[in-house]
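hiii so um. not sure if this is the right channel but i have a protein structure encoded as tokens and i wanna go backwards to a sequence. like what aa goes where. can anyone help
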């Protein structure tokens, strides 16, 4: 008989993770203390944007139940505590809400049930929880990636489980849940698991920094990074899945939080982590790439230009604007006339006094001296450069991710500027 699984905290992480477990045929009780949120969930009004989430929860049917009553968790054999953990501007995690939720769950759960902390926490946190005996408390590394959360939760590459003593067998009920996903299970001590996610993100940041640093060289010397990246992926020391796409630095909240955590731990423990400071510096420099391009090509030549900004979220398929390069650009262009469009998030007039919010992408291009494509939303790939050119007053299109067809942009007479391509726009 399959164990009943509980999830406490119906924010981004908890909601998607619970849906994935229910998708494996388990009965899942989804608890949140916010009755209004639970009511919205019951009406199928999800608080996050994730491709495939509505379909997954629909297919789960009655297996996935929502409640604001903590005692409804008493019938669960395995309980995940999985609220999103907020971070401040210095990348420090605030675990106050998580700790309070854990206390409440412990008071409501069956004495024989096991608890798994799924939220990402600073290394050392799990072992400080004294409410449960060690054999009933685990830490599991989450796999949340905004915009890809459903795919990663339903098809994990591996499961990393922190234990008080990794030499002891995992609780059989927890193992039943994990084995349903058919991926390797890696037990390790609490502290190793807590640091594992940070280690993975540090490797990701290293790849991003390599791509961004060398892509800038490509722009200057006539090389094209899109031609180089496939060669790196064929090197087995790097691999076909290496993240080698240049972008506008480290956005969102998770990567910067983890780098800040490494810096603080290194300072406290007396270890050297200067490379982390270099990664952060590189990221902040890369974020301003569109602004530098605008300054050189438009702002230095036009006293009162109109700038169109396509995309506000920090990446596609998410509603999050945390550390968004687009928001940073809008605020940096204070004094200039702007128009913006995003398919999910409306820009705020508080960001900029001369900002117009457009209802569609072409409207944001009307009379623009330059267009900046700041978020690689898939629908922007369908924009025809000729249509943009007819709407625009100028001819500069700054398109970091090459969303527009480059040959069509050249044919339309646009100055098409792409990350990692020659400054002419990358045309052969």
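sure thing!! here u go:
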């Amino acid at each position: 008989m399959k164990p009943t699984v509980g999830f406490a905290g119906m924010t981004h992480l908890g909601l998607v993770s619970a849906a994935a477990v229910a998708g494996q045929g388990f009965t899942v009780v989804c608890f949140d203390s916010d009755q209004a949120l639970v009511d919205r969930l019951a009406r199928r009004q999800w608080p996050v944007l994730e491709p495939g989430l509505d379909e997954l929860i629909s297919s789960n049917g009655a297996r996935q139940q929502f409640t604001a009553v903590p005692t409804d968790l008493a019938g669960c054999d395995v309980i995940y505590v999985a609220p999103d953990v907020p971070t401040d501007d210095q990348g420090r995690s605030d675990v106050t809400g998580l700790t309070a939720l854990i206390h409440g769950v412990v008071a409501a759960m069956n004495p024989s049930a096991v608890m798994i902390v799924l939220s990402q926490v600073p290394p050392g946190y799990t072992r400080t929880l004294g409410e449960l005996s060690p054999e009933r408390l685990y830490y599991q590394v989450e796999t949340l990636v905004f915009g890809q959360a459903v795919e990663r939760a339903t098809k994990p590459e591996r499961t990393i489980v922190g234990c008080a003593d990794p030499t002891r067998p995992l609780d059989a009920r927890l193992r039943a849940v994990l084995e349903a996903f058919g991926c390797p299970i890696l037990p390790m001590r609490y502290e190793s698991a807590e640091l594992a996610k940070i280690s993975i993100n540090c490797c990701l940041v290293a790849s991003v920094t390599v791509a961004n640093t060398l892509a800038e060289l490509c722009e200057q010397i006539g090389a094209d990074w899109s031609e180089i990246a496939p060669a790196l992926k064929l090197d087995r020391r790097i691999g076909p899945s290496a993240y080698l796409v240049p972008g506008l630095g480290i956005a969102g909240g998770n990567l910067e939080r983890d780098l800040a955590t490494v810096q603080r731990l290194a300072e406290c423990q007396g270890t050297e982590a200067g490379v982390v400071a270099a990664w952060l510096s590189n990221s902040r420099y890369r974020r301003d790439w569109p602004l530098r391009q605008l300054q050189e090509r438009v702002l230095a030549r036009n006293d009162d230009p109109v700038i169109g900004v396509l995309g506000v979220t920090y990446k596609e398929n998410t509603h999050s604007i945390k550390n968004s390069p687009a928001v940073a650009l809008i605020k940096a262009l204070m004094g200039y006339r702007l128009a913006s469009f995003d398919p999910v998030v409306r820009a705020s007039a508080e960001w900029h006094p001369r900002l117009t919010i457009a209802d569609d992408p072409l409207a944001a291009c009307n009379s623009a001296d330059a267009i900046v494509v700041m978020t690689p939303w898939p629908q922007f790939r369908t924009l025809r450069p000729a249509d943009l050119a007819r709407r625009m007053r100028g001819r500069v299109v700054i398109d970091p991710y090459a969303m527009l067809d480059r040959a069509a942009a050249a044919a339309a007479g646009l100055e098409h500027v792409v990350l990692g391509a020659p400054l002419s726009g990358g045309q052969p």
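oh and DSSP finds 14 helices and 14 strands in the chain.
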